[in-house]
Design a protein that fits this description.
This protein has 15 helices and 16 strands. The chain folds into two domains: about 20-170 and about 230-320, BirA Bifunctional Protein, domain 2 (2-Layer Sandwich); about 335-430, Rossmann fold (3-Layer(aba) Sandwich), CATH 3.40.50.800. With about 450 residues, it is an alpha+beta fold. The strands form three sheets. The chain has an eight-stranded mixed beta sheet with strand order 1-5-6-11-10-9-7-8, with helices on both faces. A five-stranded mixed beta sheet has the order 13-12-14-15-16, sandwiched between helices. It has a three-stranded antiparallel beta sheet with strand order 2-4-3. The longest helix is centred in the middle third of the chain and has 18 residues, at about 140-160. The chain has helices spanning about 20-40, 50-60, 65-70, 90-100, 140-160, 175-190, 195-200, 220-225, 235-250, 295, 310-320, 340-355, 375-380, 395-400, 425-430, and strands at about 40-45, 50, 70-75, 80-85, 105-115, 130-135, 165-170, 255, 270-275, 285-290, 305-310, 335, 360, 385-390, 400-405, 415-420.
Length: about 450
């Protein structure tokens, strides 16, 4: 007797997206892509692996991501230092510079894909997570900041998400942050006994991040700390006021949060987060801001930029919290058949129906066998199909198929005998024609 092999499971913090959740993911991705397209954004796809130095330079060497969370390794073939991307902006900016994308004018870009961070897994925070993001490269005014924020609002509306609020801040330019930083360090040093170990570690390396602390014992201290908004010069203030003016004119609700600083070194001026209270500790579902210095840091010509990124898993969780939409049908038509000749006919008809633009599932044998008509009809009903098409020995002999409505709310489930060569036209007419009022056809993919 052979030894039972140990089951292999997924790596901690890296999850499978199962067929039951796929419709929600498709709904999110299709809606997001549609919204981005409606604002003139174009898709860009960058590699999952980049040089480690790209992220150290972009994100900042003294950040949690670079110090503790990146999946980095040495390429065994040539010794290169490589990293699985922990975020999307750095790769997009690298591509913009490498391919001179901004040479002929500003670009609106969007991306989606997996990111990797070695964090402690919890609800809505995983080691492989999927991000959807947009970057606007080459625009300097507050108008593009407002556009990206309003784009997000439209996405929430289209997804039916109404428990997301906008928090906004300006972190000025490097000189303004330096003056604030010096005063912030002095303030925290004067209250060193209140700082926890993490805050003490960050004090001289990245003191702005102390303002992000969740430690209850430090809340009064950070609330009374010097506020960056008070250090902004005329240009930074004018940019922030310009943004608020456009948002106000478009009835975009927001809160100015002076403690909102973002964790990455490349941000300047506008920073924003969309936050919910429905997901526990992981409340931020979308975050972004302006990063005007970044492209020059990468060796490109000085070019302004702004973008956002959203975690798809968190938004899927939020969609579930606010009422998961009904699971779409697998298909429009389920083909039931019995006997060798019937199977041949079923394959031919299945292809013809697909040619007409409908989705078809054809019943196939399992280790238990082909299945009786009764068990096949049960599968047909479970598929969510509008119709079952039945082909047995009698149908083959008479050159017909039986078409049975599975979703008819009036007068029970009706079955009609139709000549084989007329079956496609009959089914299409039933689904896109006079049968529409009888049942929900959101799943139908018919395109004449």
């Amino acid at each position: 007797m052979s030894e039972k092999k140990e089951k292999i499971v997924a790596i901690k913090g890296m999850n499978d997206i199962l067929p039951a959740d796929a419709p929600l993911w498709e709904l999110f991705e299709n809606t997001a892509e549609s919204v981005l397209k409606s604002y003139g954004y174009q898709k860009i796809v960058t590699p999952i692996v980049e040089e480690t130095g790209l992220f150290a330079r972009a994100i900042g060497a003294v950040t949690d991501i670079v110090e503790k969370e990146m999946y980095s390794f040495t390429d065994s073939m040539n010794g290169d230092q490589l990293t699985l991307r922990p975020e999307g902006t750095a790769g997009v900016v690298r591509a913009v510079i490498e391919h001179n994308l901004a040479y002929d004018g500003p670009k609106r870009l969007w991306y989606k894909g997996p990111m990797f961070r070695h964090e402690r897994p919890q609800r809505g925070r995983y080691r492989q997570f999927f991000q959807f993001g947009a970057e606007a490269i080459g625009f300097s005014g507050p108008d593009i900041d407002a556009e990206l924020i309003m784009l997000c609002r439209r996405l929430w509306d289209d997804l039916g998400l109404d428990n997301i609020r906008l928090e906004l801040n300006s972190i000025g330019n490097a000189e303004e942050r330096q003056r604030h930083r010096a005063d912030l360090i002095a303030y925290f040093e004067a209250n060193i006994d209140v700082l926890d170990a993490e805050a003490k570690r960050r004090l001289h390396a990245n003191p702005l991040r102390i303002l992000d602390t969740k430690n209850p014992a430090m809340q009064d201290l950070v609330n009374n700390a010097p506020k960056l908004l008070d250090y902004l010069g005329g240009e930074s203030l004018a940019h922030f006021e310009g943004l608020k003016k456009i948002l106000d004119a478009n009835n975009v609700q927001y809160t100015v949060n002076p403690r909102l600083v973002r964790g990455l070194d490349y941000y300047n001026r506008t920073v924003f987060e969309w936050v919910t209270d429905m997901l526990g500790a992981q409340g931020t579902v979308c975050a972004g801001g302006r990063y005007d210095p970044l492209i020059e840091t990468f060796g490109g010509k000085p070019t302004p930029g702004i973008g956002f990124a959203m975690g798809i898993e968190r938004l899927i969780e939020l969609m579930k919290e606010q009422g998961e939409p009904a699971t779409p049908a697998q298909c429009d038509v389920y083909l039931v058949h019995q006997g060798e000749d019937a199977q041949t006919k079923a394959f031919i008809l299945g292809e013809r129906i697909r040619d007409a633009g409908l989705d078809v599932v054809l019943h196939c044998a399992t280790p238990a066998g082909a299945g009786s008509f009764k068990s096949q009809m049960k599968k047909a009903d479970g598929s969510g199909a509008a119709f079952a098409v039945i082909i047995g020995e009698d149908e083959v002999e008479n050159g017909v198929v039986a078409v049975k409505s599975l979703r008819d709310s009036e007068g029970g489930q009706q079955q009609t005998s139709v000549p084989f060569d007329e079956a496609v036209d009959f089914i299409v007419d039933q689904i896109v024609g006079g049968h529409d009022h009888d049942h929900d056809h959101d799943h139908v993919h018919y395109h004449p």
